[in-house]
Write a structure and sequence with these properties.
- By secondary structure, this protein is an alpha/beta fold.
- It is built from 15 helices and ten strands.
- The strands form two sheets. An eight-stranded parallel sheet has the order 3-10-9-8-7-6-5-4.
- Helix 7 links the parallel strand 7 and strand 8.
- It binds flavin mononucleotide.
- Flavin mononucleotide binds next to strand 4.
Length: 332
Amino acid sequence: MIKLPELKIGNIKLKNSLMLAPMAGITDMPLRELAVEGGAGLVFTEMISATALSYGDRKTLKLLQTSDKEKDMVGAQIFGNSPSVMSESAKKIQDLGYNIIDINLGCPAKKIAKAGAGAKLLESPNNIESILSSVVKAVSVPVTAKIRIGLFKGQNIAPEIIEIAQNSGIKMVSVHARPAENGHSGPPDLKAFEEAAANAEIPVIANGGIIDIKSAEKFLKIPKCGGLMIGRGAIGDYDLFKRIEWFFDKNDVLPHPDINTKIKWFKKHILASIDFYGEEKGIVVLRKIAPYYIKDIPNACQIRDRFNKITTLKDFNILMDNIMQFSNSTNF
Ligand SMILES: Cc1cc2nc3c(=O)[nH]c(=O)nc-3n(C[C@H](O)[C@H](O)[C@H](O)COP(=O)(O)O)c2cc1C
């Protein structure tokens, strides 16, 4: 019988070993609160530029705002390539009250690679070592890292990077089990993840393609899998965390979200987003997230187009009422 592993990050014991992945432009405070409500044991901010934070950039500080709902369950992720700037930013984040700091060693985006950060660092283990150790030395909270299995297909550098990380004082590594060259597509490499976790002395968390119980189980079967990190599968389906926890820990099957549940989450999200950003921006920032809420609804494309023109809560509520009327009349 497979069970969810218990997870301790340094001295922090989490309520479960299920976490929301950091996602730029997505995992702001409103969405993180929903993930906590849906059962995540830990959530992450999107990647924060250590350089921008060192200048006290206002937008960057907004990305670091947290709420009581996610208190003690939120980690901040930073990226950069200078040990001193990264440590200075980590200290600032600790002073803001965060009790977990994560270091991005997996982002393949061109802009990040140009700055020598993210997955680009996987090409130079010496740099990784100096960044990780200086951040660990600079703060008293646990520091974690998020890595890739490798840069290109067939390469597995995770065991080497995990060894460097644990020797540098890192307390947990999450592994996106796809090569950096694949971006976020394709199946996760389960065998490479198994090899990555095999000799680790710190928790190694699986990430990539977890969208339901079946995909969660594939990772949980792997010896030494320390927990699961879920990205896109949890957007708009926050109860996925609860469903996984109940299935593996309580042997109970919770229902899949129906249209009413999805709309309930969408409405909650809009209200929280408006509260956080103001009415117009609060709605506009959800344009890239709306497809996750409406993808299973017939006419999803038309609904998305209508949503993309909306800038007021009143019009949003009209659209949601239209969807509900339509769904009740067609019984889906
Ligand atoms: C829109 C988007 C933004 C992302 N931003 C980040 C980020 O800021 N930091 C990071 O470490 N990974 C980032 N990722 C990668 C995710 O954390 C995760 O590794 C990836 O989506 C694979 O997990 P999934 O298959 O469950 O979605 C991002 C992914 C997406 C789709």
